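FORM 7B: Structural annotation worksheet

SECTION A. Query
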Amino acid sequence: MNKNHLPGVAPDDLIRHDFQNLEARETLRTANYVEEVILMQSVEGHAHEGHGLFYGRKFPNTTQDDIARALRRNPAAVKADRQTLIDEIKAFVERAIAERASGVALNGEGQPLLRIGTFRTMTIDPDGVLRGLYLGGLRDCAEIRTIAERKYGVKIGYGKSYLVDKTVMHDMGLSGDKLAREGHADEIETFKRRGLIVDGPAETNDHVSYMYIRHRVGPGASDDAAIVAGGLLYDLSTAVGVFLADAIDTLEKYVPCYSDQDEGIAEHIEKSWSSLDASRDDAVRLAYLAAAPEGDDEIPDSSLRHLLEVDRRHDQCAIESHLLFVAGKPYATQELDHGQTTNTRFYAYLENHIAEAQGS
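SECTION B. Predicted structure
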């Protein structure tokens, strides 16, 4: 129980032990401080699901603020670090639109975006990255997924993050877990009227947190599939752009001021870049290709952490494997999604899926 006496918040010692365990056994293909902010978000997921060192004990109302404080981090500083990573991608977008971006995914100081060392030596086409950011930023929004469901006859499921008053949430008998797992499309307006969903400045405090509310239940979508499909349909640079959009979607969950920044970047590209050679119909197609069929274990669903986690047996992480495959270069066979599938099985599935979609 936290200082506001809301139940369902993990004890500080469990948070610290889980974080220390993750930090000791995992290496992400990024700078140390970026690794830390990603692992902190993983601890939140562990607390909600009872995974890791929580050993089945679920704490569904644990927030990133709780994680930061338990680890003796300044929440404002952690949020600022995450927003800086997003802002560097936004600055790259502006340079690319103005045709001033280099052929490497670097920030203005010559450091790789997201501090991913692989980007230092990877040649990219800025136009392709813009295309990928556009498609990746749109394919996850509710409107695009709804159209994809209707057009292709599939069930995807979707939701959106909102500012949530945790005191009202508790009074309504809800929890972070219920909001994230159950379908609430018909209750959104009720949530707003009762003050569960908060309007106004998109900032958090001890009572208000940025939380995911599921609208419709469904199998969801695979970021891995969106990245690789973007690359197969277009090129390597498009795959990089889709990946960056997915990374923004993760990072924006804990920043100083909340908004759908990946969708906002996509809309900015749509309005400001006259050379855009993709449309919302293409985003609908990508949403369909990334949809996870019910009961199918050949599509991995990797978080940002798992995309960057280095498999020490091969010195390769999943995002490197995906980009190598798209580029037609050799890659090591490795397990994905906690061993549910391998990259080779996944790529074969996705190639067939794309071929069937193009032939239909």
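SECTION C. Observations
The radius of gyration is 20 Å. The CA atoms of residues 134 and 266 lie 4 Å apart.

SECTION D. Sign-off
Analyst initials: ____
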